[in-house]
Amino acid sequence: MEKALLVHMSTERDPVGSVEESLQELRGLVKSAGGEAIQEIVQHRREISPKYYIGSGKVQELKRMMQELQADMVVFDHVLSPIQLRSLEDRLKGKVIDRTQLILDIFAQRARSNEGKLQVELAQLHYILPRLTGKGRALSRLGGGIGTRGPGEKKLEEDRRRIQERIGTIKASLRRIEKRRAQQRKARTRSPIPLVSLVGYTNAGKSSIFNRLTQESVLASSQLFATLDPVIRRVSFPDGSYCFLSDTVGLIKHLPRELKTAFRATLEEAREADCLCHVIDITSPHCLRQMEAVEAILSELEAQDIPTLKLFNKIDLLPDTKRLLEKNRDRENTSLYMSALTGDGLPEFKRNLHHQLFKDHRVFCLRIPKSEKNTIHSFPKWSIVLKRRENRNDIELKVMAEPKAMVKFSSYILRGDTLW
Questions:
Q1: What is the second-level CATH architecture of the domain 193-358?
Q2: What tens digit of pLDDT does each residue of 18-39 get?
Q3: What does pTM read for this prediction?
């Protein structure tokens, strides 16, 4: 396990309490990457140093601490320019990585699908390209430890032209994948089955809720960015209706620009949803700022107008669980409380989700002659077929649909719901 010194520089423009919040998040990122944070250094300055980001005196202090504590690397809670990165490495005589590089490293470890691996590699190459200075210290350390996984030393020692060719190849592959994904989204759009996306800050508990709702066993971990590749499964409701649920990558403040670009196709799953479930860790002291960070990214994706349920998770860790669950009774409630661990609040959440998805739908029972084959086959394309029963001369259907869509089938509708 690599030992890391964490560095954060605070300016007068930083909000109150943001320093500890950022360092706590950075500690989690280092742990998720497989490292150990052994010391934190905070400097307060009015302006950023163009050469070192922090002051030259603090750099000297860092160098002494690296030697005394035998640290393997220094991790900055900021994005360093190529000049700052090189200057720090030359002065400290050790490995220096910034927040972007750390997050890219975690993504490189967690990506499982071919698409995810390509997206991470593309983001890493975009990050590395302006930092190529020849086969000096910056390249000699690649391929060994946190911040260096991904494309590997062999690719990174290619000249700029070769790297740009590789970027072009990856982009072409991702365009093909994106085109296929767009076709799948278009098919889902035509489908009457609604799509729900779980969104939220990383480690808010999205995957645990996904598993509760779908009876799946998607990896749920306390580590940041445990889920990278989107997963879609079916969720059934007591009346026989159902929806598709998508578990998406966790969001984070200051998500690296390289990752925003590379993962845009994945993040756009949320934009195509009929409903968003914004999962919030109610136990986090920074939950309000985390909510704002998620809402800002959704706004960038133009998904801010999609109907959204706010789902406050991890209430089992709070003393007033019963009082919070009382708030769930209103089925039009858009702020709900639950525990993915215990399942408390899950039935109320599903009831509210069902109401949100199907509040404009009604249940209809029909009896259609078998001779009307085209009419019978059309129902699954625009309505949810809850039940079907075949008789000698006709077929009986129980469907959920919007009333206006049923007008032209009024002659087949049975009054009084006498079938089931």
A1: 3-Layer(aba) Sandwich (3.40)
A2: 788 889 889 989 998 899 999 9
A3: 0.80
